[in-house]
Amino acid sequence: MAKAKNRMAEILKSFDVWRQRDTKTLVRYRCFEDCSTGRFCVQSDDFYRLPVTNERTNYLENQFIELLMNESPFERVESFASIKEAISNHDGSFA
After folding, report:
1. Distance CA 10, CA 52 (A)
2. Residue 25 in 3-state DSSP?
3. Amino acid 7: pLDDT
4. What is the pLDDT of residue 11?
5. Kind plus residue range of the DSSP H or E element containing 54
6. What are phi and psi of 31, to 5 degrees?
7. How would you write the pLDDT of the chain (95 residues) with one tens digit per residue?
8. Domain that holds residue 47
């Protein structure tokens, strides 16, 4: 129950960071800033390839929201002082 109270008090800012991998692939990093600490994390990354379809973009959006509703990204992954560090760590986790 205490975890739920803490979660309800949590205020997060979400934003996207984009990186082009090649001429046919874009990556969207789903990032958060904890407004109380100023720390950053990456919840997930979405890959887009041509042709982009509504089915794919809707799936990724739903997945993002469901994951966020299940657990705070700051409980799931490590946080960092900068978004650049958070992205670098996220990429390193899948290298």
Report:
1. 34
2. strand
3. 62
4. 95
5. helix 54-70
6. -110, 155
7. 334 445 667 899 999 999 999 998 999 999 999 999 999 999 999 999 989 999 999 999 999 999 999 999 999 999 999 999 999 999 998 77
8. 2-93
Is the preceding omega at residue 51 within 30 degrees of 0, hence cis? Answer: yes
CA distance 55 to 50: 13
- Distances in whole angstroms, Cα of residue 69 to Cα of each of 4, 38, 47, 63: 12, 21, 21, 10
Q: Would you say the C-alpha torsion 19, 71, 79, 40 has a positive or negative sign?
A: positive
How many domains, in total, are found in the chain? 1
The two three-digit tokens of residue 89, written as one number: 């760590």
Are 14 and 32 contacting, i.e. CB atoms less than 8 angstroms apart? yes
- Do residues 39 and 80 lie in contact, with contact meaning Cβ atoms separated by under 8 Å? yes
- Confidence at residue 8, expressed as pLDDT on a 0 to 100 scale: 64
pLDDT value at residue 36 = 95
